[in-house]
Amino acid sequence: MSSTTASPSDADVERLRKRLDRERLARLQGEAIAEKTTRELYEKQRELQLLEAIAAAANEASTVEEAMQAAVVSICGYTGWPVGHAYLLADDNRRLISTAIWHLAEPDRFSAFRDITEATSFEAGVGLPGRVLASGNPAWIMDVNLDDNFPRAQQAKNIGIKAGFGFPVRSGSEVMAVLEFFATKALEPNDQLLTTMDSIGTQLGRVIERRRWEKALMASEQQYRLLFERNQAGVYRTTLHGEVLACNVALARMLGLSSPEEVLVTSALQYYWDPKERERFLAQLQEVGSVANFELQLRRQDGTEMWILENANLLPAKNGSDPVIEGTMVDITERKRAEEMARHMAYHDYLTGLPNRALFDDRLSVALAQAKRHDEGLALMSLDLDRFKLFNDTLGHATGDTIIKAVAGRLSRVVRGGDTVARVGGDEFLLLLTSVEDGDSGAKIAQKVLRIFDRPFRVEGLDLHGTASIGISLYPHDGDDGEALMRNADAAMYRAKETGRNNYQLYAPAMNVRAAERLTLENDMRAGLKRREFEVFYQPQVNIETGRIVGTEALVRWNHPSRGVLGPNEFIPLAEETGLIVHLGEWVLRNACRQVRGWHKRGLPDVRLAVNISMRQFQRREFVDTVRAILLETGLEPRLLELEITESIAMQDEEQTIATLRRLRDLGVRISIDDFGTGYSSLKYLKDMPIDALKIDQSFVRDLTTNVNDAAIAINIIAIAHSLQLSVIAEGVETGEQLDFLKTKRCDEFQGYLCKKPIPAASFVKLLADQTMGSPAVFRSSRPI
Amino acid sequence: MKGIVFNLLEEVVTREYSADTWDDLLEAAGVNGSYTSLGSYADEDLSKLVMAASSALQQSPEDVIRWFGRSAVPLLAEKYPAFFAPHASARSFILTLNEIIHPEVRKIYPGADVPEFDFEVAGNALLLGYASKRRLCSFAQGLIEGTAEHYDEHVELEHLNCMVRGDDKCLIRVEFRTNGAHSN
């Protein structure tokens, strides 16, 4: 170390000079470093501003092109280069297509370059953009005039373009676009710049990627929106409070509105038919999060009702938003209607729409339970149309159906609101009447019901009259269960039929016995026909003038094995109702013809045979053939057979009746009208119908001598018959006075107890034989023999 | 090598010896000697200076570097007290090297090639891993020892593996003792 002397040595000076040099050098170094750092900082800031500007433009741009245009302008501004352009990758992924994205500092100067660029296709590897596409990396050309892979060299040269660089817009390794820039002087490659450009390329790549993704999202959204908007099912979103957030057209239409907008201003709650259903729906949604196949009745905007099938999910509250119900609904009104129809048909009569037996049974058991609980009475009525089978058979089923419908309508109107009218058979109805305490009130209602038959039923221009028979049973008086009440009402109804129809009967315990008897009788009758228990009796018909027997009426008797001999009144009505009359009637006709023919063969005088024909027989298509067959079979001369039909037969289907009668007349058979005067006694049919005789009903004959009216009727019948060239026979003549009266009025024949009651064949043969043997006429004087 | 290291060395030499000694050292090493803290200089300059000191002091280059490191700590503590203040022990300070100290160094001296240490706690001791092409593990040792002194601690280091001895990587076992404990 040096000594501390006053004047420094040369060595010290040298040392200090060196030290000073070092310090100065260090200062210069430091300043250079500071300047460099400051410059770098400035460059860095510009670069950052560029990147920020491009990022901002990219975010604001609505299209990829806009974003790239902004990038081109920014980069030209940043670099000071006068030409910038962008290419997009062609759909074939192998070429670049020039776009309208340009920046030209001097458009006029560079337009030729722009035109050649736009006219050139850049395959991978070709030219500056092709090189970028091929490598996927930025590329720099110091001077395009010296480059042997620059197709636009001529145009570039003409306008002074020299340096150029390009960089890819990339997503991952995929090049989607290329940007290129040109300067008018030759420049060394700037790696720093290319690095920056590369990151801009990546940034723009993200923009393209995002646009693509947005496009895909929009397409997907569009798809779902169409699925939503065009769905045939109604689709909706609502809040729990029923505010409609969204819905589609189908839903609007279902509700009777024309657009979803109209639905949005309404509340879902207003469409519920029953507000309790909404509660049920919400409870299930909140409990399990969804509702499946929920059937619900809604009220459309116009107030009409509809049924829907609903499926819904509850989207729970999220990020402070309220929970939302999302669901679909399908209109199942038609299906419900069909189901309702099926259900209705299962419980209703197809013809009248009235409840059927099944529904009636239901209502009865409900009504019974209620009556028991409240200690009230009720009435059951069994109503049966009288002779409806005949109606049906003669006028056709269509007419029968029309009458049934009319009866159903009248019955429904005559009962009170809570009462039930059911159709339980062809012509059988049941009425359930609540709060009927005794027989009197039941009877009053029955009278009311019978009055609905006062007016005729008008069918195809005809006024048809019908009647009904009603049986009534009362709860609790006549039974405390449905079955007993039903059985007893039926029994009472049969009793009403037996007592002449067109009336009502309250049930009495004896009726069941009668009903049972009826059934037995029917069975016995079938058996009796097989066992030949029936027998034809004959009642003489006498010529009033000569007193001789000129004919006989065949009348059936039943030798019942346990009940003895039964007259026609005891079984013919039942035979008519059940249809047995056809069989029985034919049996009588055949046997009577055979017997009478037998008498003729034995030489007995020819007597006319009169046989009653029931309506059922007469209406049968094959009736005339049957008569012809029997005549042939037995050999009886047709002129000796007289068929007696009633007025009521004649009244039905006049044309058909006349046709049948003509055919019978053609056979040679006589026709007479039985019980004349008791029915309509229309003069018109007397004129038009081919008949031979009238029979004055015994009800007129009985009081002939004591009742002026009856006498007048009898006189008139005789007068009319004679004026129409018909013969007249009086029935039920019992006294000489009656006979004398008839004789003075020129009645042709008579039959009755005055002469003989119906007698067995053997007795009649004897009577005939006696008359032939020359004995006096059976009846000549006014005294009974 | 960052200029700050040369500035530190200059300051240590000037403080421990004199400004003239620094001049002599520069002369002996044959280096230019104008260093600014922001600049970067050849690593070679440091080796030359170390070799010159080594021959002048008759000490191994490692010992010279170790001395430099230990002597630099008080200067650093004066210059950057905020890094030392939060810690109560050398161990705590050293463990923040990677996370706090070196990142701060990089902020001030862009491009500073600071080494990465990896630490492993082994009981009371730390296992310190060091790898650098400069192979300045002795400098690290000196800095650690200086730090221990700053916190009034005693530290013992053992080079389990050493790049200077030809290993791929240095592994230094560092054991701290408070001076109180050591005196017992």
Q: What are the low-pLDDT stretches of chain B, counting only 5+ consecutive residues below 50?
A: none
Radius of gyration of chain B: 16 Å
Helix content of chain B: 40-55%
User: How many domains of chain A, as an integer?
Assistant: 4
Element order, helices and strands of chain B?
HHHHHHHEEHEEH
Number of extended strands of chain B: 4
Number of helices of chain A: 27
Strand content of chain B: 15-25%
Which CATH architecture of the largest domain in chain A would you pick? Alpha-Beta Barrel
CATH class of the largest domain in chain B: Alpha Beta
Largest sheet data of chain A: 8 strands, mixed, barrel
Mean pLDDT of chain B, to the nearest integer, reads: 87
User: Overall 3D geometry of chain B?
Assistant: globular
Could you name the CATH topology of the largest domain in chain A? Answer: TIM Barrel
- What structural class do the secondary elements of chain B suggest? alpha+beta
Q: What's the CATH first level of the largest domain in chain A?
A: Alpha Beta
Largest interface: A-B, 17 and 14 residues
Summarize the helices and strands and which ones pair or pack:
The complex is a heterodimer of chains A (785) and B (184).
Chain A: H1 10-60, H2 64-79, E1 83-89, E2 95-104, H3 107-119, E3 122-123, H4 127-135, E4 139-141, H5 153-159, E5 164-171, E6 174-182, H6 191-229, E7 234-239, E8 244-247, H7 249-254, H8 260-264, H9 275-288, E9 290-299, E10 305-315, E11 324-331, H10 333-347, H11 357-374, E12 378-385, H12 388-395, H13 397-414, E13 420-423, E14 428-434, H14 439-450, E15 457-459, E16 462-464, E17 468-475, H15 482-498, E18 504-506, H16 510-530, E19 534-543, E20 549-560, E21 564-566, H17 572-578, H18 580-601, E22 608-612, H19 615-619, H20 623-634, E23 641-646, H21 647-651, H22 654-667, E24 670-676, H23 683-688, E25 693-696, H24 698-702, H25 708-723, E26 727-730, H26 736-744, E27 749-750, E28 759-760, H27 761-772
Parallel strand pairs in A: 17-18, 20-22, 22-23, 23-24, 24-25, 25-26, 26-27
Antiparallel strand pairs in A: 1-2, 1-6, 2-3, 4-5, 5-6, 7-8, 7-11, 9-10, 10-11, 12-14, 12-17, 13-14, 15-16, 19-20, 19-27, 19-28, 20-21
Helix pairs in contact in A: 1-2, 1-6, 2-6, 12-13, 15-16, 17-18, 18-20
Chain B: H1 3-16, H2 19-29, H3 43-57, H4 61-79, H5 81-84, H6 90-94, H7 97-108, E1 117-122, E2 125-130, H8 137-150, E3 153-161, E4 170-178, H9 179-183
Antiparallel strand pairs in B: 1-2, 2-4, 3-4
